[in-house]
Design goal:
Blueprint lengths: L11 E3 L2 E3 L12 H18 L13 H14 L6
Antiparallel strand pairs: 1-2
Length: 82
């Protein structure tokens, strides 16, 4: 047993080029929508501070599904189970 992260054993490619994947996961009761909003608001500063030639891409945004579920739920009205 050791305290720390495992050595990387996977390879990430984007458009056939070697890349790095950074997943941002929420914890507990944190709001997915709030986290995505704050990360997106931070991206311009992160991009400005990044080395020249570094390209940052958003590959997946879970908030799209959360927003769709909230929108669908609000259109249907209150649940008969509530």
């Amino acid at each position: 047993m050791r305290d720390g992260f495992d050595v990387q054993t996977n390879i990430v490619r984007q458009d056939g080029r070697r890349s790095v994947l950074l997943s941002i996961l929420k914890s507990g009761s944190a709001s997915t929508l709030d986290i995505v909003k704050r990360v997106q608001a931070s991206l311009p500063d992160i991009r400005a501070a990044a080395p020249a030639g570094l390209e940052l891409k958003e590959l997946f945004d879970q908030s799209l599904f959360v927003r769709a579920a909230v929108r669908e739920s609000s259109q249907k009205g209150p649940s008969p189970l509530a």
